[in-house]
Specification:
By secondary structure, the chain is α+β, with helices and mostly antiparallel strands. It contains three helices and six strands; from the N terminus they run H-E-H-H-E-E-E-E-E.
Length: about 120
């Protein structure tokens, strides 16, 4: 997968990939760091952040920025939206069909919409 995407597969990148691509999930960089280093690995925080950036640039994962200080890395690349629980920090997928966008602002003629991402932020009462 890494080579097919033009990424040199180093030992650390392979380990990080194994964590990310074991299932469709949302992980923060800290969660990736903890998971990778559980198996007596010594992967630095900088390596994790750099690798996540490379994976995102090459389209293997997407970044979900739920607030300026919280980024999740999403291995589910199908079209979908998100429900973010601000009280627990959980992020869950919403199918594209479950969200209906009925009106968008009128854009100048020289602009075209590329994509619309929806993050619904909630907290429990």
């Amino acid at each position: 997968m890494l080579r097919d995407s033009g990424i040199t597969p180093t030992h650390q990148r392979i380990k990080i990939g194994e964590v990310l691509f074991s299932c469709k999930q949302h992980l923060s960089a800290e969660q990736v760091l903890v998971a990778v280093n559980q198996e007596d690995e010594e992967v630095s925080k900088a390596t994790v952040y750099n690798t996540l950036g490379v994976f995102a640039q090459h389209g293997l994962i997407s970044e979900v920025i739920v607030d300026p200080s919280k980024v999740f890395y999403d291995s589910n690349l199908s079209k979908h939206h998100h429900l973010y629980y601000s009280d627990t920090g959980e992020l869950e997928d919403l199918t594209d069909e479950s969200v209906e966008i009925s009106k968008l602002p009128e854009l100048p003629n020289d602009l075209q919409i590329e994509d619309v991402d929806v993050i619904i932020r909630v907290h429990r009462n």
